[in-house]
DNA sequence: GCTTTGTGCCAC
DNA sequence: AAACGTGGCACAAAGC
């Protein structure tokens, strides 16, 4: 079942399964493709087991080869290393080793794996450029030995079933991340340029402000009676000028400026807004991150402590709503955009076994369900109340409704309160599937020590209290955000498998995506509780149905028969901006 | 000159 | 309303 891949120093690949063998690097893609193609016989497909998904899989994808299942030793090691359910294992108790030090392989460091080369790759130009060498695995990392340690740690843990699911989900997530990097997010540079030009004026020469910003800078100076030398990009200078003009702002934050009444506020807010567009997603961004009609970022699986993904490159997880108009499906294709409604409170309800809260989400909108139960008068209060419960809010409306939520949903609220108390005590909390939080670290220790020192004053005690509560908010949120991330991993894994099973639509027009996705629906974007699938138009309805089925499957995988729903909003659109 | 820190805003 | 979780990123200012 597990087929472990390793690489000799000379690049030769060793394949460890029933019949261990060595293959030249150039032969790997065809070997993997042959194993994946053998689905017609009864044997299950191999679980490709490697030190790092990017290192192996990106090359395979560039050779047009997809795999069904994998096991990412680096990612699973990280989880098991600190997982409380596996705390007694040899893996968890060993001194730090090379698997702990391993960083993810950057996509740029991975060359295409041999075989199935596209014709244009054989050009003289290509021959003149030597292929990049394969990135070397870390010294002292024997993948077979590590796999055994991981299997032992899981089998001997207090929750083998859950940890096994987490390992499979994390590994599948790594496949999805590599595939989304490979396929890219469809991006229309011309549309993006039109958005920028409409808002800012035409692209200015390097080092110059766009016309609209220049005009707003002029208005800002006029409103402040400031000299032409005033640069609105300089916070200290601008604040000084505003003070001089008696504006009364303590900072340049948007929400603070919005409270003021002064002629400078309107042009300044618009300036900040457009300046942000220019610097974060302007022409430079377009030049750097979009090529051949695709935006390619690097997803970092488990890049957030809670298990959420992060990304590096282009700020992919912060794409402003305003530029999503540039995300447009290829001709003859569409985007199926799906997001989960109120994922985190639903996950909380299921973890806590809180049937009342799960029931509030039965008809769709969970916050509306809370209102319908008579707990709070408005949807807005239900929402801020639940968010406050999960984030640790202590002020305002959120704190006001918390007691009523606690009375109606004692199990759910107790779960997050317990997680907070554990964190405040310096303890570790664990998600539903077994990812544990880091310890509080030296800042927490030092704060407590400070409060007990002989010369401790009121401020030291206050600081200790603040650090303590802050860590409690972290662990409170960790269990919910982390379990939501686990649900999302299972959702993604299921979507990925189902999309491939749909196959190519007969007669569909090929898109611009590279093999193996040129004629198949594929995941193109993922944002915590939201996915974008790029699909041939003919398959839009089928894709939507599979994405919904995948959400049901994810709920069952995590929470079995517990009656909790994960309803989706699904939209089939030409542009991402048209979803919801 | 360089790197680090602070500010502020975007996403969920 | 602006305190209440997780991040990435760009820029200017501060520090070396």
From TrEMBL:
SMART domains per record: POLAc (SM00482)
Bilayer-crossing residues are none
| Gene Ontology molecular function, alphabetical | exonuclease activity
Cleaved signal peptide residues: none
Q: Where is the composition biased (Basic and acidic residues)?
A: 143-152
Q: Which domain of life is it from?
A: Bacteria
EC numbers for this chain: 2.7.7.7
- CDD domains, sorted: DNA_pol_A
**Catalysed reactions, semicolon-separated:** DNA(n) + a 2'-deoxyribonucleoside 5'-triphosphate = DNA(n+1) + diphosphate
Sequence ranges assigned to domain DNA-directed DNA polymerase family A palm in this UniProt record = 320-539
Segments for region (Disordered):
130-156
Q: What keywords appear on the UniProt entry? A: DNA replication, Exonuclease, Hydrolase, Nuclease
Database matches in Pfam families: DNA_pol_A
Q: What is the recorded name of this protein? A: DNA-directed DNA polymerase
Species of origin: Isoptericola peretonis
